[in-house]
Amino acid sequence: MEEHIFNIEGLTHRFADGTFALKDLSVTIQQGKKIALLGNNGAGKSTLFLHLNGLLQPTGGTVRFKGKKMKYDRKALLSLRKQVGIVFQDPDSQLFSANVQQDISFGPMNLGWDINVVQEKVKWAMAQTEVTELKDRPTHFLSLGQKKRVAIAGILAMEPDVWLLDEPTAGLDSYFSRQIMALLDSIHQPDKTIILSTHDVNLAYQWADEVIVMNDGKVIYQGDPVSVFHDEEVLLQAHLEKPWVFEMFQALNQSKIPAARDLTPRTKEELLQKMETVSIY
Ligand SMILES: Nc1ncnc2c1ncn2[C@@H]1O[C@H](COP(=O)(O)OP(=O)(O)O)[C@@H](O)[C@H]1O
Ligand SMILES: [Mg+2]
Questions:
Q1: What pTM value is reported for the model?
Q2: 262 in helix, strand or coil?
Q3: Most buried residue among 110, 159, 163, 246 by CB atoms closer than 10 A?
Q4: Does the C-beta of 42 come closer than 6 Å to ligand 1?
Q5: CB of 12 closer than 6 A to ligand 1?
Q6: Which residue minimizes the CA distance to atom 13 of ligand 1?
Q7: Residue 193, burial from CB neighbour count under 10 angstroms (0-12, 13-18, 19+)
């Protein structure tokens, strides 16, 4: 039987200003999957992540981690954070030490590991994320892509079972986005669970084993990445487009012939238009 990492029932979160960011949200997360939490800005993705890492407490409903209701005392949170690592969307909320190496060491040091073990893990994490040559640099002068990699290294060094990555590729150019995604693939093992939040349908479609769609503080869909994009109602409700590969494939299937040879379309619209014209012959 698949192990449940998180069971969330009727989770509600009301911020101090009265905003309801999560509204009676229920979802179960299974161990070992690569999960994309998909939803537009304001859907409640970041707020949900803060609950999964115990940084926020529910104003209603329950969050269970490995079958047990979450507790919020120091000891319980330390144990949770050994197992669940979070990479914030904005690396500036994560990085605060004088230099890169110190920053990456901070989490593992807090776990109370032996200094030799910490040093070994930090060295390994820096190599994996390709930040070794930055190790003596002050974190605040790094580029966004470098900061993101350092933030990921800090979590990697703690080797959590569950990863929460809040929009890890947002603001990165495609080269660094691909690099981060490749890194996540290398982190992923059958016993590790990775939950990544994104509003990028192409990324979710390509990468995830499972897609969870959030809209207006609720989970409105959970399933495999192909079936979600067949569900027109969910796409409409969450204001999501179809991934372009998916859309092209649908169009190709309808046209029954390979794309025309005499024109190289520059946009999705041009390609779709071309295929419509060609398919009448
Ligand atoms: N600290 C806060 N105080 C008040 N409202 C907040 C706070 N953080 C987020 N919100 C609101 O909660 C809703 C969900 O936000 P968020 O979880 O950040 O969504 P997402 O990550 O999907 O963009 C939004 O309406 C947002 O404006
Ligand atoms: Mg967010």
A1: 0.90
A2: coil
A3: 163
A4: yes
A5: no
A6: 21
A7: buried
Six-digit token pair at 110? 């807090």
- CATH architecture for residues 4-242: 3-Layer(aba) Sandwich (3.40)
Which ligand sits closest to the CA of 50? 1
As given in the structure block, the two tokens for residue 118 are: 């910490």
194 within 8 A of 35, measured Cβ to Cβ: yes
Give the mutation target among 12, 41, 47, 216 for probing the ligand 1 site: most ligand atoms within 8 A of CB. Answer: 47
pLDDT of residue 281: 47
Q: Which ligand is nearest to the CA of 14?
A: 1
pLDDT tens over the chain, length 281 residues: 568 999 999 999 999 999 999 999 999 999 999 999 999 999 999 999 999 999 999 999 999 999 999 999 999 999 999 999 999 999 888 887 889 999 999 999 988 889 999 999 999 999 999 999 999 999 989 998 899 999 999 999 999 999 999 999 988 888 888 888 888 988 888 899 999 999 999 999 999 999 999 999 999 999 999 999 999 999 999 999 999 988 888 887 776 665 555 666 777 787 777 777 665 54
Tokens of 121: 């893990």
The residues spanned by each domain of the chain are 4-242, 243-281
Q: Is the CB of 40 under 6 A from ligand 1?
A: no
What are φ and ψ of residue 67, in 5° steps?
90, -15
Question: Which residue type does 186 have?
Answer: S
Q: Is the minimum distance from the CB of 62 to ligand 1 under 6 angstroms?
A: no
Cβ neighbours around 210 below 10 Å, total: 18
What is the atom index within ligand 1 of the atom nearest the CA of 214? 22
> Which residues keep their CB under 5 angstroms from ion ligand 2?
45-46
51 lines ligand 1 (CB under 6 A): no
Ligand 1 close to Cβ of residue 72 (< 6 A): no
